[in-house]
């Protein structure tokens, strides 16, 4: 009995330190998935024909703007028909753009997929965030 009492007294005076379980609060313990954003190539109008089918950022000079009832054209480098590249905006999207004449005789940056129409490379602009005026 004396030994029993002795063990009880010792165990009451002894402070037990239990190591708390450490969990990573910053992880859901699922495998890390890193999403890689595609690199969008920056090109000049002279490189457009070599990048047909690609999403690009193109920098160039708008030589003329032509507005029709159903479509508008921003012709690059030279006026139509000698232009090297065209941005096309269909009438269903006109409301998304400010005055298109504001782009005339300006350096711009456009983004989108390059396609070809009548042998000329083009980007169809569907939203105003695809084009911006830039400084030389």
Protein architecture, described:
This protein is mainly beta and 136 residues long. It has a domain at 41-133: Nucleic acid-binding proteins (OB fold (Dihydrolipoamide Acetyltransferase, E2P), Beta Barrel). It has one helix spanning 2-13; strands spanning 41-44, 55-67, 71-76, 85-90, 107-117, 120-124, 131-133. The chain has a five-stranded mixed β-barrel. A hairpin with an 8-residue loop joins strand 3 (71-76) and strand 4. The longest helix has 12 residues, at 2-13. The protein is globular. It starts with a helix and ends with a strand.
- The helix-and-strand class reads mainly beta
Mean pLDDT: 85
User: Which percent bin holds the helix content?
Assistant: under 10%
Task: State the order of secondary-structure elements, H for helix, E for strand.
Answer: HEEEEEEE
CATH domain fold name of the domain at 41-133: OB fold (Dihydrolipoamide Acetyltransferase, E2P)
Identify the CATH architecture of the domain at 41-133: Beta Barrel
By CATH, the superfamily of the domain at 41-133 comes out as Nucleic acid-binding proteins
Q: Could you give the topology of this structure?
A:
Elements: H1 2-13, E1 41-44, E2 55-67, E3 71-76, E4 85-90, E5 107-117, E6 120-124, E7 131-133
Parallel strand pairs: 1-2, 4-6
Antiparallel strand pairs: 2-3, 2-5, 3-4, 5-6, 5-7
Please give a quick description of this structure.
With 136 residues, the protein is mainly β.
Keywords:
single chain, 136 residues, mainly beta, OB fold (Dihydrolipoamide Acetyltransferase, E2P), 9% helix
């Amino acid at each position: 009995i004396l030994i029993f009492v002795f063990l009880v007294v010792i165990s009451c005076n002894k402070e037990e330190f239990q190591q708390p379980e450490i969990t990573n609060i910053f992880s859901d313990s699922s495998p890390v998935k890193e999403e890689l954003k595609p690199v969008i190539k920056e090109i000049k109008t002279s490189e457009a024909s070599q990048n047909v089918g690609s999403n690009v950022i193109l920098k160039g000079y708008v030589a003329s703007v032509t507005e029709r009832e159903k479509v508008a054209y921003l012709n690059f480098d030279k006026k139509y028909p000698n232009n090297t590249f065209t941005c096309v905006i269909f009438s269903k999207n006109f409301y998304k753009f400010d005055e298109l004449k504001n782009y005339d005789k300006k350096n711009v940056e456009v983004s989108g997929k390059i396609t070809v129409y009548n042998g000329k490379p083009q980007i169809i602009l569907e939203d105003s965030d695809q084009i911006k005026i830039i400084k030389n």
